[in-house]
Design a protein that fits this description.
The complex is a heterodimer. Helix content of chain A is 76%, strand content 1%. By secondary structure, chain A is an all-alpha fold. In chain A, strands 1-2 form a two-stranded antiparallel ribbon. In chain A, helix 2 packs parallel to helix 6, helix 4 crosses helix 5 and helix 10 packs across helix 11. The longest helix of chain A is centred in the middle third of the chain and has 41 residues. Chain B is built from 11 helices and 11 strands. In chain B, strands 1-11-10-4-9-8-7 form a 7-stranded mixed beta sheet, sandwiched between helices. In chain B, strands 3-2-5-6 form a 4-stranded antiparallel beta sheet, with helices on one face. The chains are: A mainly alpha, B alpha/beta. Chains A and B meet through helix 12 and helix 13 of A and helix 3, helix 4 and helix 7 of B.
């Protein structure tokens, strides 16, 4: 029986336990005045039996699947001749992989020695018995769970509380899983970054003013020795984000004010969804808009003013990124301004304040924490944005704050470092992890600040 | 009695019971006459033939009422009777509701307040308002009171502003409680203090009329008593129109009382007369607690 069949059988057993549990609750209550004598509703007894059938068996199944391969490999390799036992772990792995692919019928016998063929037969036998044992064990555990639960059903059994506490733990483990995954990603990035910092000192990375990650792979190659100064990338990121925010914050905020305070209900109900569609346009589309339309336009415009503008400029990328972020800022600010209670508007207008004074002196101050939080979220997005910059701002890591020149950002460099053929132990590739780590900390810091600001000033008007 | 007849009789019975209890069965005609004394000799504000519509729905039907100088007029009536709507027409607060349409003639000291050249900003500075729920701004106590004088440019320097703030807080009998914490947020005060802060904020721009829309409905009895005392003191300098659900409150603070019913002004008179000898059946039913 393969895993899918086992799983389906398990589900069937679970459903059956539900109905049996429900039926049994009716049966045990029959002698004592019917369903009213039960502590919980009959369905809770059913759920209890179903959960008891499902959860332990699922745990066994998952554990089996996780450890199956490792244990089988151990058993097969243990029986191989001494010459194999003395191989290095990676050679051993290669040797064993040949065994496995032969056992699965993916390669023919011509590439293998006699010991491997024997091992492959051994392996096949182990796999099929493992399958059988797995299926039997899982179904046995499920049956035991169900029977145990069914036998415990009494009118006084608090099945509802029992089921709800199990559900609570299921929910907890889901959220725990999410946290664990994040932690896993951070740790894997961290470990690779540490490997990078073993070749390139941290100080050189954080304070170096030059970024040219090309390294000689072979001794005879003519290439830069590779310098991994992070500063030009960081400055480029900040420059493009700053241009984007200069566009997005005023436009987004003011359109939010217009929509929430002045616009008629009909206008608002059309405009807001339309602007939110703008947020749904894939960034790659914005990217070629930036590269093919905005960047040449800016260059021609700059040249007519006598300025030298690179054909890929930070200004073009930032401009288009700003347009991309407008709906984000607008939507968040609009929600926040709308959340300011009407009583404050009335209070201000009732004093003889104009609409303008009311917005400037009452609504915006009251909504400020939320707006700042929204803007910081938008900044995180700008910093993390890749596609537009790849297409419109170029790849040259120039240390400049002139928005008319080509710059590059952290995310763009991560992309270029990891695209194409890679060696996973050269500093060039590992640099991507170091950049990722820094990026993670920068956005984390921004989010923490945003949360702090929002929390500090929240509920002021409640 | 056959079956249909039985049902008919039962239905008639039910209607009769409801008629006693349900106010909505009692409909005045559109050309009704307000009983009592809606007009006074020395009127601060006048309203004539007022109709207010929310979209298609008529909220106020043909109301005419004077508000006398330096008097407290109480507006009472069951929920949804239009008393708050009427109050809000007096400083054009209904203007900010897009679907609301106001008809009729309004004057403040004989001056048309819905006229083309009348600015709502100036009108609302002369006719201030205190709302049902205390709604201080999320600013300091000082800034709350200074808000109005600042937007109307009433103080030319810090010393003048300090004086206005202190004076307004004193008149709202709040100064002694908050004088050491003027820089603390107004939202941190208790409900009653917040409402007195809102009154201080309203009087800081020296209005001539103060409209109060159920100012005590969110307050406890002790805070309510303080506000009522305050209203009595304010009467010396201001004209006050107060909407209230509490008939005791109307009886305690007002000189004249107007009884509203389903968008119509049924009866107006001296508070004492309204509460002791109401002339209209609806007024009597309401104040004796038969409905409401």
């Amino acid at each position: 029986m393969d895993t899918t069949t086992v799983f389906l059988a398990l589900l069937l057993l679970t459903v059956a336990s539900f109905f049996m549990g429900r039926k049994r609750s009716h049966a045990v209550a029959a002698g004592q005045g019917g369903a009213r004598a039960l502590h919980s509703l009959p369905k809770h007894y059913g759920y209890m039996a179903a959960l008891w059938a499902l959860l332990p068996a699922m745990a066994v199944l998952v554990l089996w699947l996780v450890f199956e391969n490792g244990i089988l490999a151990r058993m097969v390799v243990g029986d191989l001749p001494a010459t194999v036992q003395e191989m290095s772990p990676s050679e051993q792995g290669l040797y064993f992989n040949q065994v496995v692919s032969y056992a699965r019928g993916a390669t023919d016998a011509s590439m293998l020695d006699a010991a491997q063929i024997r091992a492959a037969e051994h392996y096949s036998a182990l796999v099929s018995s493992s399958r059988l044992i797995k299926a039997l064990l899982v179904l046995l555990v499920a049956l035991c769970g169900a029977i145990l639960a069914l036998r415990r059903i009494r009118p006084a059994l608090r099945a509802r509380n029992h089921v709800e506490s199990i559900l609570k733990w299921i929910l907890f483990s889901c959220s725990f899983l999410a946290v664990l995954t994040t932690l896993g990603i951070v740790l894997s990035v961290l470990f690779e970054a540490i490997r990078f910092f073993q070749t390139i000192p941290v100080v050189d990375f954080l304070f170096g003013l030059e970024w040219s990650p090309q390294m000689a792979i072979r001794a005879d190659q003519v290439a830069a020795s590779g310098s991994f100064g992070f500063v030009p990338l960081f400055v480029g990121t900040l420059l493009i984000s700053a241009v984007a925010m200069i566009i997005a914050v005023p436009v987004g905020l003011m359109s939010a004010i217009y929509l929430s305070e002045y616009a008629s209900r009909g206008f608002r109900s059309v405009t807001k969804p339309v602007l939110e569609i703008l947020a749904g346009v894939p960034t790659v589309v914005y990217g070629f808009f930036a590269a093919l339309t905005v960047a040449p336009f800016i260059r021609t415009l700059g040249e007519s003013l006598g300025l030298h503008v690179a054909s890929e400029s930070a200004l073009a990328a930032g401009l288009v990124m700003g347009i991309m972020i407008i709906p984000f800022v607008m939507s968040l600010s609009d929600d926040i301004i709308n959340a300011v209670p009407d009583t404050l508007r009335e209070a201000s207008l009732g004093m003889g304040a104009t609409m303008n004074e009311t917005i400037r002196k009452v609504l915006l101050p009251a909504a400020l924490p939320g707006i700042v939080g929204g803007i910081l979220l938008a900044v995180s997005r700008a910093i993390g944005e890749t596609m537009i910059v790849v297409m419109a701002a170029g790849l040259s890591a120039k240390l400049t704050i002139n928005p008319l020149e080509a710059v590059t950002t952290i995310t763009v460099q991560i992309v270029t470092l990891l695209v194409g053929d890679q060696e996973f132990d050269s500093p060039k590739t590992l640099a991507a992890f170091a950049l990722g780590l820094v990026l993670f900390f920068v956005t984390l810091l921004l989010n923490v600040i945003a949360l702090y600001v929002v929390r500090k000033y929240r509920e002021q008007y409640e | 009695m056959d079956r249909a007849e039985q049902q008919g009789a039962a239905a008639a019975d039910a209607t009769a019971t409801r008629r006693q209890l349900d106010i909505r069965d009692h409909v005045e005609p559109a050309d009704y006459q307000t009983i009592g004394t809606p007009f006074v000799d020395d009127a601060k504000m006048t309203a004539r033939n007022v109709n207010v519509f929310y979209g298609e729905k008529q909220a106020i039907t043909n109301i005419s009422l004077d508000i006398g100088r330096n008097e407290v007029i109480a507006m009472i009536g069951p929920s949804g009777c239009g008393k708050s709507t009427f109050l809000r027409t007096l400083n054009r607060m209904n203007d900010i509701i897009p679907i609301c349409r106001v008809e009729g003639e309004f004057a403040l000291d004989g001056e048309d307040i819905y006229g083309g050249d009348q600015d709502t900003v100036l009108l609302r500075a002369r006719v201030g308002m205190v709302f049902q729920k205390p709604n201080p701004f999320p600013k300091s106590i000082y800034e709350n009171v200074a808000y109005g004088p600042r937007i109307h440019g009433l103080a030319h320097n810090k010393a003048e502003m300090d004086e206005i703030v202190e004076d307004s807080l004193r008149r709202a009998s709040l100064f002694n409680e908050v004088k050491d914490q003027l820089d603390k947020p107004g939202t941190g005060l208790s409900g009653g203090q917040q409402q007195r802060l809102c009154i201080a904020r309203a009087i800081a721009v020296s209005p001539e009329v103060i409209l109060m829309d159920e100012p005590c409905s969110a307050l406890d009895p002790i805070a309510t008593a303080r506000i009522e005392e305050l209203i009595d003191e304010l009467r010396e300098n201001y004209t006050i129109a107060i909407v209230t659900h509490s008939m005791q409150q109307a009886a305690r603070v007002s000189q004249r009382t107007a009884y509203f019913h389903m968008g119509k002004l049924i009866e107006v008179g001296d508070t004492k007369q309204i509460f002791t000898m109401p002339r209209h059946e609806l007024t009597e039913n309401y104040i004796t607690g038969r409905f409401g």
